Amino acid sequence: MTVYGRFPSFRARRLRRKAFSRALVREHQLLPSDLIYPVFVLEEGKSQDIPSMPGQRRLDLDDLCRVGERCLALGVPALAIFPVVPDRKKSEDASEAWNPEGIAPRAVLRLKTEFPELGVITDVALDPYTSSGQDGIIDREGYVQNDETVQVLKEQALCHSRAGADIVAPSDMMDGRIGAIRSHLDANKQSQTSILAYSAKYASAFYGPFRDAVGSAAKLGKADKYTYQMDPSNAEEALTEVALDLAEGADMVMVKPGLPYLDILRLVKQRFARPTFVYHVSGEYAMLKAAAQNGWIDEKPCVLEALLSCKRAGADAILSYYALDAAEWSRIG
Ligand code: PBG
């Protein structure tokens, strides 16, 4: 980096002195159009609070539509939906995952009918549907089987796409699923559906509140996801995962979680220069919310700073449970 002058002829504080010059030289900005709102959708019953995620709710379809309307009003371009499935519909083979009458396709259809211009993203993974709470089909030892799972994921993605999903987002971390899903969609006249690959998805403890929200925590029990999600110690491996997913046809790639993995986000964006999203996950939301509710931090500036850091690190878009709040705050602020 070239430095054009030295103190005292150069003073870094000169441009920081006034608000107008701070605004002019600002390098990054958080906009409502950078945000995607993840929402939990209920198969049955009325909307419910989620204790470990204060301010977030499991939504019935009517409330989901209200939220969709709010996204559009605030300039948030897309929703990502996560189904909450009753226990009796969970099974070993996760067959509910590609039931065209299931809650995910029904939610997509409803949203796309009422708000055609709102982007709808669906989660492709089996954890809401398996009796094990794992993202795939397990064998006798409880090992998540790769190729068997990919066969189901293909059908799940096709089912979502047929219901009208704009983007399908495999979050399961099986090998080869992006290529398999792309060919299956293309072979079934769904070539316009995009794939957002959760490419660098780490086996993180920050997903805890999400697992409470969808009810997979109880199913998982003491089991973990270490045989498919990435080891938090690894950075180079994330680049391999991203390279493979792009080669297999991913339109966008994702790094997840957010703040603890900003280094990975930066590496991925710099190396591939492709659309790169980040997921500011449930545990990150819960930490900020808890501190704010206790009066220990000032919620609005802390949240905006956290989300801005994702943009600065290279994110094109951010999935965040704070999306609607942040959109509102960044408009006024
Ligand atoms: C599961 C899935 C998870 C999240 C999104 N999709 C949890 C997991 O992998 O156990 C986590 C999101 C969050 O914590 O906000 N396919």
Bound molecules: ligand PBG
Helical stretch tally: 12
Query: Distance between the terminal alpha carbons, to the nearest Å?
Result: 32 Å
Global Rg: 20 Å
3D shape: globular
Determine the CATH superfamily. Answer: Aldolase class I
SS class: alpha/beta
User: For the record, what CATH class applies?
Assistant: Alpha Beta
Biggest β-sheet description? 8 strands, parallel, barrel
Q: For the largest beta sheet, what order do the strands appear in spatially?
A: 1-4-5-8-9-10-11-12
**Uncertain runs:** none
Q: How much beta, percentage-wise?
A: 15-25%
Helix content: 25-40%
Mean pLDDT: 96
CATH topology heading:
TIM Barrel
Per CATH, which architecture?
A: Alpha-Beta Barrel
Number of domains: 1
E-strand count = 12
Order of helices and strands: HEEEHEHEEEHEHEHHHEHEHHEH
Structure keywords:
333 residues; alpha/beta; TIM Barrel; globular; binds ligand PBG
What does this structure look like?
The protein has an eight-stranded parallel β-barrel, surrounded by nine helices. It has twelve helices and twelve strands. The protein is α/β, with parallel strands linked by helices and 333 residues long. The two termini are 32 Å apart. The chain has a single domain (30-332), classed as Alpha-Beta Barrel (TIM Barrel). The mean pLDDT is 96. Helix 4 packs across helix 5. Ligand PBG is lined by residues 123, 125, 127, 135, 171-172, 207, 210-211, 225, 281-282.
Write the layout of secondary structure elements.
Blueprint: H1 19-24, E1 35-42, E2 48-49, E3 57-59, H2 61-74, E4 78-84, H3 103-114, E5 119-124, E6 137-138, E7 144-145, H4 146-163, E8 167-170, H5 177-187, E9 194-201, H6 208-214, H7 216-220, H8 236-247, E10 252-256, H9 262-272, E11 276-280, H10 282-293, H11 299-313, E12 317-320, H12 323-332
Parallel strand pairs: 1-3, 1-4, 1-12, 4-5, 5-8, 8-9, 9-10, 10-11, 11-12
Antiparallel strand pairs: 2-3, 6-7
Helix pairs in contact: 2-3, 3-4, 4-5, 8-9, 11-12
The protein binds ligand PBG.
